[in-house]
Automatic annotation (TrEMBL):
Lineage of producing organism: Bacteria, Bacillati, Bacillota, Clostridia, Eubacteriales
Name of this chain's protein: UDP-N-acetylglucosamine 1-carboxyvinyltransferase
Residues given in the record as UDP-N-acetyl-alpha-D-glucosamine binding sites: R92, D304, I326
BP GO annotations: cell division; cell wall organization; peptidoglycan biosynthetic process; regulation of cell shape; UDP-N-acetylgalactosamine biosynthetic process
Pathway, per record: Cell wall biogenesis; peptidoglycan biosynthesis
Amino acid sequence: MEKFVIVGGNRLKGTIKANGSKNATLPILAATLLTGGVCTVHQVPRLRDVLVMQELLSYLGAKVTLENHTIIVDGSGVQSQEISEDLMRKMRASNLVLGPLIGRFGSVKISHPGGCNIGSRPMNLHLKGLTSLGAEISEKFGYITANASQLTGTVIHLDVPSVGATENLIMAGVLAKGTTVIRNAAKEPEIVDLQNFLNAMGAKMVGAGTDVIRIEGVKELGSVTHTVIPDRVEAGTHMIAGAMTNGDVTVSNVIPEHLDPLIYKLREAGVQVDVGNDSVRVQGTGVLRAVDIKTMPYPGFPTDMQSQMMALMTIADGTSVISETIFENRFKHVPEFRRMGADIRLEGHTAIVKGVPRLSGACVEATDLRAGAALILAALAAEDGTVLGNIEHIDRGYERIEKKYNSLGARIIRVNS
């Protein structure tokens, strides 16, 4: 098991580039299963989750090559087959193969997926939507089986704007007969990127980025070359790293509009944020003010940035109230922050954070992907050294984050425990 040893107290300064979006890459790679052609995807981050998806595609018969940050998928040999529990449990996004496999082959059998334990993420919305499209669903012994001789377009109204369900139903709908309309759809930028990818393959889809998506089914999809959008969560994490260390950090390769909720809150907290065409510069002003946060579906404040923003609030002047409305178990990082001297009280799905003058280094554990990133941020601002364990969670969403931060003046060492 690897750990990070982090010596805090250094002011970060310089330029750091965000990679392609993990949360856009994974559904796009799943969507390659919809065609027997060749899909070339650029700006793919080299992350554990991406490697697991590569393994999953290969298991299904695709020929997959990953070179630098480009992945090429030849789907001519793909066959729908039972996917083992071991493979499915490696990450949550493995459930995204459900829609494309039943859309292209009419049948699929998968185990319930794994992933970070941050709260309940049931499959009921996915399965309810597929049933509306004409699939017959059964669940036995931890496996989901779906069959349909021909999916037929219909109107689907999601109970909540689930990102995963929206993506799965889009991928099922593009090859369905007739028109599919998804109402109360999730609006995330990653769904817009998936729409652009599918339309370039020959799909007929409009509305991504709004709460109503309309799909005209087509008979087949072809080859495509696509570049994934930048990762807004990675970019946001780097922005907070600059703010926490009172530094001067420019994050390049970003779409600033995707960062609007974070930019607004950082400015409210007293951080100077300058926005360029494809970059954002964050400069500490020596003063951090407490702000309140409430996570919401896009375009609200993202749940994937909640723990990082909490790290910033631990050293802000005043008391902030952070409400988590998306995942009920997403405060597991709070005990780890307390080990570092943070003053945080939990009341249900709300955290009351009273800023302290400084944090202290400690031995802490990453409880999930974003909590691990937040603990790195806290360690960068803390006195003395911090030992951070379970960093395999962090590698699921950040490509060699220690190398990037060391280039800005941080002191982070990856060691074998």
